[in-house]
Amino acid sequence: MSFGYFLVKLVLKLKGEKQSWSEDPINYKKKRKQNIRVPNRWLLQGCTFDQKDIGKNRVTQIIPKNEQGSGLLIYCHGGAFVYGPTRENWVALAKIAKQSRTRAWMIDYPKAPENTIDTITQSVYQAYQEATKTYNPSNIGLMGDSAGGSLILTLTQRLVKEAKELPKQLIPITPIVDASVSNPKIKEIDKIDPILSLKGVLSANKMCVGDLSLEDPLISPLYGDIDKLPPIYLFMATDDILTPDQELFIEKIRKVNGNIEVITGKGLPHVWPILPIMKEAKEAIRRIVTITKELKGEG
């Protein structure tokens, strides 16, 4: 464990992050106090931006000064479907955009419990469809952490089903792949996970699912069609309650000879690639930058 992660872990403990995820129902209104819907240039590492509404989404386009090529990275932030984007989301995406010289979209999609998963996924679908009016799908990448990781996977499964052109790559970061979080291994990891707790995650998922089953593919990509997905670069963590389900997802992908690369944060928590000051997170961002450059044909 790096010294940076030691400090992050200490801050998480002082903030009572684990405790906040142990509530049922989860206090989503308190979580929303972290929301930043309009970023400033400091958050965006000097990149410029503009905003527009696409359906029920607020889409922020991040434009690096040194933009090069015609690639687009579309990012669905995490927040258990009920809050976000937060400071960590903006900073991470801006770093990736700036270092890869690639334009990026932050998709601030409608949230639960005011909206259910059918509305949320339809909104993300609309944003992707709008992007394809300007960008060739072969130059589009999708990235998402936690709930956002679920949304980019379910979006791509829908595109496969509808025989639409697919994005070039998927970058799910510690995604929710089974909203039922019923895997028996989760309870053991809950004891060491410094961020999430089973009770709060399940509560948020129930707020989002509406009348559907928590195992419906619309909210749980583990149960969707995993054939024909584009290359996946999946970031997971050993100290994250969502990992056992991600392991099942990886197994399913490999059984159909799917293209998946797994980057594991050993001894690290949920969404570790976007956490601040950590050496491990900086290395993960560099890896994502390299992946993102492929949108423009760069190595």
TrEMBL record:
InterPro entries per record: AB_hydrolase_3, AB_hydrolase_fold, GDXG_lipolytic_enzyme
Gene Ontology terms, MF aspect: hydrolase activity
Keyword Hydrolase among UniProt keywords: yes
Top-rank lineage group of the source organism: Bacteria
Stretches assigned to the Alpha/beta hydrolase fold-3 domain: 73-272
The keyword Hydrolase appears for this protein: yes
Assigned keywords, A-Z: Hydrolase
Gene3D superfamilies (alphabetical): alpha/beta hydrolase
Short name of one Pfam family: Abhydrolase_3
Entry-linked PANTHER family: AB HYDROLASE SUPERFAMILY PROTEIN C4A8.06C, ALPHA_BETA HYDROLASE FOLD-3 DOMAIN-CONTAINING PROTEIN-RELATED
Protein's recorded name: Alpha/beta hydrolase
Originating species: Aquimarina gracilis
Lineage: Bacteria, Pseudomonadati, Bacteroidota, Flavobacteriia, Flavobacteriales
